[in-house]
Amino acid sequence: MAGSTTTRRALLGGHPVAHVPATDRLARLLGLELLAAFTYDHILNSSVLPADMRQTLAPVPTHERAHAAALDAALRARGAGDRAPRGPADVAAANRDLRRRKVRGRLGQLQGTPDALDTLAALERVIVGAYYVTLLDLDDGSLIALAMQIMASDAQHQAIVAELIDPDDIPDAVPYGLDAGVQ
Is residue 182 pLDDT above 90, yes or no? Predict the structure, then answer.
């Protein structure tokens, strides 16, 4: 067992794994944030959600792009701007990315409001889980703070979507990071 990341992971009940460089983790998170922005944009610009739900979720793509910009800046500050992913170019690329991350819904094939909300909820769970896993490996205080701030925002998105799915089930709206990061 080498370094603080193994210890932090062990303290949190995880198994020791090979250390992943911070720039790799940042690039993966950036890719997820870009996928989220694309997915929200696509769903919000379709007719699959009623107007009130679209209005509730309207700020989220802007948040996701702000997260992406912050992660991109962190990558560039570490001399790894060339490793920044570009995000999905089209629906087919986004669907491949969603499938790879085990998110079931397919953009362009969503069968109504429940399907769209389930897709967003699953994506937010993956994102929160990815931040959880990343936090196990980071040892740079500024990156830990950045990851925690973004994770908190994404957990709020997850809670909002869960509340839209079932407004009467508050416990299900509480986010959790146990879908530990399919990055």
Answer: no
Q: Which two tokens stand for residue 33?
A: 């944030």
Higher per-residue confidence, 14 vs 61: 61
* 154 CB-side CA count, 13 A: 34
Q: Residue 14: how many CA atoms within 13 Å on its side-chain side?
A: 18
Q: 22-173 adopts what CATH topology?
A: Ferritin (1.20.1260)
Residue 152 CA, distance from chain mean position: 11
Summarize pLDDT for 124-144 with one digit per residue, the tens.
999 998 998 888 888 899 999
Residues 6 or more apart from 88 whose CB is under 8 A from it? 34, 35, 38, 94, 96, 97
CA–CA distance, 20 with 24 (Å, rounded to integer): 7
Instruction: Report which of 133, 119, 108, 128 is spatially closest to residue 175, judged by C-alpha positions.
Output: 128
Question: Contact at 8 Å (CB) between 128 and 175?
Answer: yes
CA distances from 132 to 9, 36, 154 (A): 10, 17, 11
Domain boundaries, the chain: 22-173
Which of the four pLDDT bands, split at 50, 70 and 90, describes residue 169?
low
Averaging pLDDT over each range in 19-23, 51-55, 78-82, which range is the top one? 51-55
| Residue at 100: amino acid letter | R
